[in-house]
Structures are given as C-alpha cells and as structure tokens.
Design a protein that fits this description.
Elements (H helix, E strand, L loop, with lengths): L10 H5 L4 E9 L3 E7 L5 E6 L2 E4 L10 E7 L6 E5 L4 E6 L11 E4 L4 E5 L5 E5 H7 L2
Antiparallel strand pairs: 1-2, 1-5, 2-3, 3-8, 4-7, 5-6, 6-7, 8-9, 9-10
Length: 136
C-alpha cells in the first residue's frame, strides 16, 4: 500500500508526529542513534541520526519518557525534542564536509512519511514506501 505525502507537508507538520512515549533507544554501528516511539494512537514512529551528535549520550535515559514537542533550529539545524521530565533530546549536525554527506537525521512518521534533514540546512520529505522501492 503506497503512502500519500500531503502537498502541504513541511518539516513542521511532519515533526508534529514526533510525539509520544519512547519505547526503545539504542546506539548502532557506527555511532548512530535509533529512537523508537509510540504516539497517542499506538502507532510507531522512528528517529535515527546518521551524521550527528546527540545528548543525552546514554540513550537508555530516553526510554519511558515522552516527547512532548520537537523543533528544528533554523540557523544551526539542531533538532530539539522536549521530554516529559523536562529534559531535552538534542541532535546536533556534524560539520558538513561534502554536498553528498548523509542526512544528519531522519524521522519516519506513523503514516509512513519520511523527513530527512541535512546536510546543511536542507530537508526532504518523501514516502517510506517510495524509498524502499527505489532501493531495489
């Protein structure tokens, strides 16, 4: 089933799906943060870094907390996620080295919409279905 990406999709509208309880957070090789959450409707979203630093440095501290709000700093490209306990998950882009660097981070919404941010202050919104079929 194909996902339809709304014509009015923007980073702000896609970031609204980044809400709910963090059910898993871990570091994968090579220094990639994976965060998985469940929204108020029980649907899953996934957030992953690719070319970025994050804090807190121990992802286990995120599990069980909820993300209440998320925003992108337009000047730095940092992603700030406010958590239910008052702490913040910050994702800070690495220094850009080349135009073909990987995105700093990506969010896959419960609806299958993918928001990729970076390199630089640029973003791309696509369907998770389209990405999977284009890799074959």
């Amino acid at each position: 089933m194909a996902t339809v990406v709304a014509l009015d999709a923007s980073p702000t509208t896609v970031l609204r799906s980044l809400r709910g309880e963090v059910i898993d957070a871990r570091v994968a090789y090579p220094d990639v943060l994976h965060v998985e959450g469940r929204d108020a409707h029980g649907e899953l979203w996934r957030l992953a870094t690719q070319d970025a630093e994050w804090s807190p440095s121990d992802p286990a501290r995120l599990v069980g907390r909820s993300i209440n709000d998320a925003e992108i700093d337009e000047k730095s490209g940092e992603l700030h996620c406010r958590l239910s306990d008052g702490s913040v998950l910050d994702i800070k882009p690495a220094a850009a080295e080349a135009d073909d660097d990987p995105p700093y981070w990506e969010l896959i919404s419960p609806a299958g919409v993918v928001l990729e941010f970076g390199p630089g202050v640029r973003w791309q919104i696509s369907s998770a279905d389209a990405r999977a079929s284009s890799r074959r």
